[in-house]
Amino acid sequence: MLLTYFEAAPRRVLALVSVGCVAMLAFGLYLQHVLGLEPCPMCIVQRYALMLVAIISGITALANKKGLLMAGSAVTLLVAGFGAFVAARQSWLQWYPPEEASCGRDFYGMIEMFPLQRVIPMIFKGSGDCTKIDWTFLGLSIANWSFLFFVGIALVMLALLLVPTRATGRKPG
Predict the structure, then answer these.
(1) pLDDT tens for residues 31-81?
(2) Alpha carbon separation from 3 to 59, 62, 120, 163 (Å, rounded)
(3) Are strands 136-137 and 140-141 parallel, antiparallel or unpaired?
(4) Model pTM?
(5) How many CB atoms lie within 10 A of CB 51?
(6) Greatest CA separation found in the chain?
(7) What's the CA gap between 49 and 21, in Å, rounded?
(8) Does residue 69 contact residue 63 with C-beta atoms inside 8 Å?
(9) Residue 151, phi then psi, degrees to nearest 5
(10) Which of 53, 93, 44 lies closest to 77 in space, CA to CA?
(11) Cα distance between residue 25 and residue 111, in whole Å
(12) Strand partners, 136
């Protein structure tokens, strides 16, 4: 029954994915600005992945051709996979923290102090603050929830890619 919905309304599914990402980003900003939790470099990368998924799936939801829906879904799947990878790495670091933890400066401090070609590798070396668990819900950290959300998006995109879609709102004839 759910797959029938993917077949009949792929644009709505993509729009829901986009709205879900915006809600996750808003919650992240709430945690940062209201509760005072500072994001680590890996959290920032996950936010960028969420933004990309929101933008790509939102634009794809506006597409009126099957080819564009498929391409947008494929790109969204790749970005969600990247986000899941980063979230999984952070979850791993939280479960098995290294002996010597040093995540270094925050993201904005790195950009101000170093050229971009040095900042990018520094972001992905997150370990210190990235191992800290500041908030949990149902026993899972933010990184754990982020991983589950990205995996859910990836599964939805796979379903959109594998289930044949009908014409995108045009009447046959």
Answers:
(1) 888 888 778 778 888 889 999 999 999 999 888 888 888 888 899 999 999
(2) 22, 20, 39, 7
(3) antiparallel
(4) 0.72
(5) 14
(6) 66
(7) 10
(8) yes
(9) -65, -40
(10) 53
(11) 21
(12) 141
